């Protein structure tokens, strides 16, 4: 069965929201929220281009890996650059190009560019990550960067008033 244009548009928006939720969770280091966007038994592979790719144990393994990798950074932001999605009835596949804007006191500013190849599945009306394969595409570094601390209010949405 083919997907109607209306349904494809709805699914496309839902998958883009899923990708944005992932980027937001990683930026906020909200590791406990990750299981809500992954299917049970999701396979996550990370290829840092420095040897054998890592096969992580679902969202818990992803959280452990990423929290260790960015724990020392005083600034980190996950930015989606572009995405392409092919949608079926309850399955979809996509590519997502991204960069990480990072800073730590010793290394200065670094940026990492990468590509996610994703398999999505719709469960109970919600799209989730079924499998993710990530590989690093490049890195840059500079020591000239200013850091401005963020407060909890910076993460408020809607009618929640931001105060410092």
How would you describe the overall organization of this protein?
It comes from Rhizorhabdus wittichii (strain DSM 6014 / CCUG 31198 / JCM 15750 / NBRC 105917 / EY 4224 / RW1) (Sphingomonas wittichii). The structure is a single chain. The protein is α+β, with helices and mostly antiparallel strands and 164 residues long. The chain has one domain: Nuclear Transport Factor 2, Chain: A (Roll), CATH 3.10.450.50. Helices cover 23% and strands 45% of the residues. It contains two helices and six strands, in the order αββαββββ. Strands 2-1-6-5-4-3 form a six-stranded mixed β-sheet, with helices on one face. The longest helix is centred in the N-terminal third of the chain and has 24 residues. It is globular. 20% of the residues are buried.
């Amino acid at each position: 069965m083919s997907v109607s244009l209306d349904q494809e548009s709805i699914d496309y928006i839902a998958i883009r929201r899923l990708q944005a939720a992932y980027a937001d969770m990683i930026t906020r280091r909200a590791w406990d929220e990750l299981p809500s966007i992954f299917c049970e038994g999701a396979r996550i592979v990370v290829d840092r281009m420095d040897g054998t790719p890592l096969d992580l144990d679902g969202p818990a393994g992803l959280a452990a890996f990423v929290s260790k990798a960015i724990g020392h950074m005083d600034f980190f932001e996950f930015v989606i650059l572009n995405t392409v999605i092919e949608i079926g009835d309850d399955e979809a596949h996509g590519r997502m190009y991204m960069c990480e804007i990072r800073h730590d006191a010793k290394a200065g500013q670094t940026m990492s560019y990468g590509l996610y190849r994703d398999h999505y599945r719709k469960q109970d009306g919600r799209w989730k990550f079924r499998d993710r394969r990530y590989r690093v595409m490049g890195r840059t570094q500079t020591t000239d960067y200013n850091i401005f601390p963020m407060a909890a209010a910076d993460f408020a949405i809607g009618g929640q008033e931001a105060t410092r």
